[in-house]
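SAMPLE LOG
Freezer: B-3
Tube label: C17
Construct: single chain, 414 aa
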Amino acid sequence: MSKLSERLLKFNKGLLTDMVQLKYKLMSENAFRFFRGTCHLFYEDLSKVQEFPVSPPTWICGDLHLENFGSFKGNNRMVYFDLNDFDEAILAPLCWEVSRTLTSIFVAFNALKIKPAEAKKAAKLFLKIYSEVLTGGKAYYIDPRTATGIVKSFMKAVKKRTEDELIQHLCETKDSSFKIAIDNKTHFKVDKALKAELEQKIPTWIKNARDLSKNYTVKDVAFRVAGTGSVGLKRYMFLLQHNKDKKKLVIVEMKQTRSSALSPYVSIKQPVWKSEAERLIFIKQKMQNISPALLSAINFQGDTYVFQEMQPTADKIKFELIEENDNKLERVIKDMAMLTASSQIRSGGIQGSSIIDELVAFGGQKDWQEALLTYAMNYSSQVADDYNQFLSDYNNGKFSPSDNEKPRKDIKSE
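STRUCTURE (predicted):
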């Protein structure tokens, strides 16, 4: 077995066995999907680099790549486009976040068969806009009123979706009542005993939820699979129905949290968190302009979870759906660079992160930019090599579950 496979198996040990098998299958699709599922490899390798640029400590989402930007409905019910995945969020050197984003450009463009010259052009553009916004010291945001280009079209389209359409897409009518549609791909049945425990837990959360009426009852529960890197964690979705107005339905999700994949490699002292859910929510609230609706933490069976509303506007830009159009790509790269710098400015001077003056000064320096660009280009080749090694090992059965690995107990057997 290759050392790469040993690293992957070690990191994913302890997660839900059959869901990890699904994760490996997803990672085998292409190098970009592999990159999305191996954040830990990126930072383990980065931590060993001797000549990497020194940069100020900032709050980072940790796993920032081209598909971890997306739209969602905030707690003020408006739609925003922003960074939207904070599972790995942590206080770390500023350049760590930028280097992963730049690398994602090279890996994604290569997977999409876009010329290397275009990838380098996009990466340079990202650096240019990012440094300009950082030097300006002012945080910006994107909502339907301020969006332009492909992001504007994207937000316009997803904004038209209604909660009813979300319900119709995710649910089915059974015995004159709504149930979550089980497709055994993204939605799975939950074991009867576990389902009963979950249904008993949620009323307490509903009672304490700030932005939700107390007059809701749990109608159904399902196990949910989404993304790549987080596949293997416990993740449940709940269909809630208003007690009086039966047509009022809400879908919320509950996602298990664990320590950031970056934590073994970051030497910067971190705040003491009560739980990993508290860490995630704290950083999310500081880095985003507006946080998603119903964002909160909950404990269940010894694990901590993050709760938030599932919405018709929760979506991500899929780069494979964007044609090779210079104007479209340029505009969305600019937006992502602006949002990345804005998130660090917005959270500046909080719990150990650098103050805005320090970020402004760093943004005006030029030496680190070329170094990051070179590192990202070189590491994207490493990702390609790792992916090919993984694919070979995967096809040769190196990632098949061992006989002593126990099957999961929370999904109902058909």
